[in-house]
Amino acid sequence: MIEVKNLSVSYGEKHILEQLNFRIESGEVVGLVGPNGAGKTTLLSTLTGLLTPSEGTIIVADKSLPVGQSLYRVIGFMQDNSVLYPQLTGYDHLQYIALSHGLDKARIQYTAKQVGMISYLDQAVGTYSLGMKQHLLFACAILHQPQVLFLDEPYNGLDPTSLIRIRELIMQLNRKEGMTVLISSHNLDEIDRMTRRIFFVKEGQIIEKTLTQATTSDYLVTVQEVLPANWERRLSDHSFLVTADQLTNALLRLERSNLRLVEVEPRQFGSEQVYRELFKVKKN
């Protein structure tokens, strides 16, 4: 459904993305994770034809970019709220998209109800809260039932009820309609709920990880002294990993070795842990 070969994007002499290669199959949900400024939005804008790459090829839904309006009949892109018009109502925005795709008013009402924005559909967007704008942006992206859905921070500003509603709707669109989803989010817990395949964007590259759902956690053990270089599953000078059934023996070994325990921390194998390791995020 999405195939990228040797994709590079630059702004002037600044290289944002360099020689990316990846493939996303039809019906997959893939997470896109990285710090601010890593190039996630640039990648999404390039995959949706809004930015022209410096080099490389992109195929989305069997269409080679750049293409004309035909691409926008099969993809949906949830951008940030800077694309909204404050003087227009939510209905006005959805009506414009509906007319572009030859959809009737019933589709607008149905989508607004799905997203949970019927009560303020006729209000001017300038009166919307951040969460309400997110609802509208999501409705605009899915109104025409695209084959591929690109989401840029869909959970930004949502209260817990709205977050659950939007997450469950995304998964429903994926499972029941086979919609392919590429979702960029800083909410790593939500990414873990939706997919195990994640693209981490670091220094212009994509580092792909397919995470497994562990039934038991490892434990990260931190000690005050420097560990011997040959210590089993040593992560750093002062830390190592053990499984749950090895923990008691490991603590006894520390005592026998005169190594003072600082902390024992359960380590869930999820996107946050991978993010910490990739981007060297230390615990306070």
Quick overview of this protein structure:
With 284 residues, the chain is of the alpha/beta class. The chain is built from eight helices and 14 strands. It folds into two domains: 2-210, Rossmann fold, CATH 3.40.50; 218-267, Dna Ligase, domain 1.
Describe this structure in words.
The protein is α/β, with parallel strands linked by helices. It folds into two domains: 2-210, 3-Layer(aba) Sandwich (Rossmann fold), CATH 3.40.50; 218-267, Dna Ligase, domain 1. Helices cover 31% and strands 28% of the residues. The protein has eight helices and 14 strands. A hairpin with a 2-residue loop joins strand 1 (2-11) and strand 2 (14-24). It is elongated. The mean pLDDT is 93.
